[in-house]
Amino acid sequence: MFFAYKVRTAKGGALEGSLEANDQRAAVEKLRAQQYIVLEIKEQRSNAFTEMLNSVNPFKPKASPKDVVIFSRQLSVMINAGIPIVQAMSIIGDQLENPYFKKVITSIREDIEGGTSIADALEKYPDCFDTLYVNMARAGELGGILDVILDRLSTYLEAAENLKGKVKGALSYPTVVVFICLGVTIFLMVFVVPTFKEVFSSFGSELPVPTQIVVDISDFFIHNILAIIAGIVIVVVGVKKFAASEVGRKFLEPRMLKVPVIGPLLIKTATAKFTRTFGTLVKSGVPILSAMETVAKTAGNWAVEEAVMTAREAIREGEKIAEPLARSGIFPSMVNQMVKVGEETGNLDVMLTKIADFYDTEVDEAVKAMTSLIEPLVIVFLGVVVGALVIAMYLPIFNMGSMVGG
Fold first, then answer.
1. Does domain 65-157 have CATH number 1.10.150.20?
2. CATH fourth-level superfamily of 170-406
3. Which own/partner pairs from 193-199 qualify as long-range (CB within 8 Å, at least 24 positions apart)?
4. Cα–Cα distances in Å, from 133 out to 69, 149, 157, 268, 285?
5. Mean pLDDT across 260-277
6. CB 174, CB 374: distance < 8 Å
7. CATH architecture of 2-45
8. What Cα–Cα distance (Å) separates residue 252 from each residue in 243, 366, 368?
9. pLDDT of residue 254
10. With bands split at pLDDT 50, 70 and 90, how would you rate the model's confidence at 234?
11. What are the tens digits of pLDDT across the range 356-385?
């Protein structure tokens, strides 16, 4: 539950904002713990329809990963130079070009100035600072090495974005070609086929079966175009909502790992992300159990998340890290072996970073292999669809020519 509040700080200033809590009493206690005097607090009623629209709105204001990386690097340098964090955030906020992110940083600065911890202030904006970021910031704040942590976070975020960009790049080409194919097909069905239909009607003879099928499909498109568009939108939004739900994730994500070609790429991507995130947290001094919980939440795949959480429970019971990871069957054997060596030598963070670098390269190779495989398949698919339409349209003309020749 989220609660909107108005409070007075110890210095007499007024603050407004929102926070998440189990109930109103818990929300008040959170605010009082930060030495605020609560003036007003009420539950924020959410509108399901509005939330759905916001979730699919491509123009919703947001901060890009690049904005967060630049902010983290600048804040790290300023803290290292001895500039107080409130002043540093004020300087950075004045230079930001993204209006939404500028508003977020200003709000965070005000919270910190009012006595809120840095991590708690960041936690209010999960769309900008995820669980990993908040937990690492909390570890840096408690350990007095926030500047070092922010620098590591910047490096991690850049590597994570590069990895995500590789996967998106592999999928963008076939996706664009398929959409072009669909667009061309719809154009032919709606504008070209009806013209041929008028010509065919003057022949006064029965059309060949392939041609009749194409004409019938064209009529269906023309008479139901709005319903088709609405249906496509509903299906896309529905699939997206289902895939984002807990039931959808449990159903889809483990099965995606078993899909030929795509599955191995997803496993390598998940392995690279898991090892880099885990290595960054361990290197930053986050306890193993806390680090694994954070890694699980940011895994991006339900099967990987379950494997990490199961391993975490086994580690809590006294097992070493490599053993439960090996039992999960998710990660390649090389990962388990290198993690075991890292544990035994006391260089787990170094070993995890080396694994992440190796699998980044593996993802590169897998992306190239997948692209080289998908490109001819997509071209063949496009050729078959367009070619079939062209042949179907010209069959009556060929038949008419043979009849004249006879």
1. no
2. Type II secretion system (T2SS), domain F (1.20.81.30)
3. 193/218, 193/389, 193/393, 194/218, 194/222, 196/393
4. 11, 9, 9, 23, 14
5. 84
6. yes
7. Roll (3.10)
8. 7, 22, 25
9. 86
10. very high
11. 889 888 888 887 777 777 778 878 887 888
